Write the structure tokens for this entry.
Amino acid sequence: MRGDSGRTRSPWFASANTPLRPPLAGDSRAEVCVIGAGMAGLSVAYHLALEGRSVLVLDDGPIGGGQSGRTTAHLSNAIDDLYVDIARIHGVDGARLAAESHTAAIDRLEAIVAAESIACDFERLDGYLFTPPGEASDLLSEELRASHDAGLTDVALVPRAPLDGFDTGPALRFPRQAQFHVLKYLSGLVRAIERRGGRIHCGTRADGVTGGRTARVRTPAGVVMCDAVVVATNTPFVSRVLVHARQHAYVTYAIGATLRRGTTRALYWDTADPYHYVRVHTLPEGEVLIVGGEDHKVGQADDAERRWAALESWARERFPVMGVVTYRWSGEVLEPVDRLGLIGANPNDHENVFIVTGDTGMGMTHGTIAGMLLSDVIHRRANRWARLYDPARVRLRAAGPFVAEAANMAAQYGRWLRGGDVDSVDAVAPGDGAVVRRGLSKVAVYRDEAGVVHERSAMCPHLGCAVAWNRAERTWDCPCHGSRFDPYGRLLNGPAAADLARAEPPERQRRAS
């Protein structure tokens, strides 16, 4: 995954120098090849290197340049989809394992920070869950019981969250949550991996993976031969259909604003739909209030300005000390229909090809869980979380959401029957993009700032859905499975494994018709 492709930027990239490693220079060999140098990939690589495995990490962008650099960096055992839902789908035992694993992930990350002397602003603090104004607090009472049943017996119902200028009403307090600077942490993991002999190559795209007795990862520079492969690229390009039918891609938005004076440092979440999440982080220029939310399906809306404005309005009502908005960005979240991430062997593949995906908006703890779990699996040790996160699992109680999401995905293919966004290429302004119908096909047209037109096929190479233009990030986004491409059609994020194809010239279109 490459880094920021559009005009938005997170505060992490503005306040950290992430390491860049040279591309792969030819064929290579390692015991484990990890694809993806974000939170999940580097966590897996670190745990394997810690046990003496030879590890090689590939990424087609910089360290943390994908979705890890777009997180709001909450470290929480308060599940985004609530323990009420987790217990309904996975049972009370499943909810207990989910709580246990996310709690262990925070503890593990804290231990790594200490052991490796990583200066990443790690900080323990409380988290508060509250309801929107006017909404009954019955859900909080239910979630309190579900959290206690899941083993989080120190969760408590309090009269309000500690906000000076806004009365949230009753709230649940989750103690011993945490926050950190994600890119500083990843830089520390890079140093720790390399000290133990691990190799990391940026600017190297993995074009294909073949499992078997000797697994092979193909890149333009050469082939990496290994005993096992871990695909940690937010969404796996090694699965064509099965995994992507069971999870769906959402865009989530975030803003960072100055604070005119301090506010209580904590994590804050509400139960709105879509919900909001907030924390305070200290950067060299001062404290920044980080606010996220306003999610929608990838490629199914292009109204980022409205959503950023809605976030700002929501936050100003609750945080009167909020100053000027200095950062705006968005990220992609993979949401499985049964509400828990997918970590383990890739379904219908060789047993030595593993995936990490479906972080459900909890990518920081989810990626750390992956490091602990896959280290056990690759070393053939039992792990009590393995069945819960097994990518091949089936949960019958998630059948309803599965059907609804499948219907939404199928409806996106109807875009081929509709006209283009504009009538002709001439209507595309400099710095903008649009889909133009040309005969029986559609063309993704981008006009750069100099006025030069760049055309690619609008068909996503994954499963043929028509991409949509994202004006805020200046990307082409697939509304079916979440693949994203830069303005020129170059792949940014899977499950597609290739760039957008070249568009057929208009002359050929006319001859064909």
Q: What stands out?
A: Residues 11-71+183-244+339-403 form a domain with the FAD/NAD(P)-binding domain fold (CATH 3.50.50.60). The longest helix spans residues 82-115.
